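Practice problem: predict the structure.
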Amino acid sequence: QVRLVESGGGLVQAGGSLRLSCAASGSTFRANVMGWHRQAPGKQRELVAQIWPGDSTNYADSVKGRFTISRDKAENTVYLQMNSLKPEDTAVYYCHEYGSPDYWGQGTQVTVSS
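Answer:
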């Protein structure tokens, strides 16, 4: 059974940094695209970043230059380093393993105060 567990969320002031982690167990982690998504109150869930098995990456325009996605294949963990955080980055952040079926973590809250 695939299980994705996010951690690292919290409260931070604008301009600060956080690093989110997603530990994957029971999955074909190394072969699948992994992603981070977020959902703010009253808004739809949106893509933040993706990383391919070959370590190519893709970012939403709103986070380019501030966020970095990476993966540790030995530890089956995906990271999202978030710098220069803004209040509009406040959301629940979800880890996503693309596949058939898709898998999602339970989410971790990130709150950025102004």
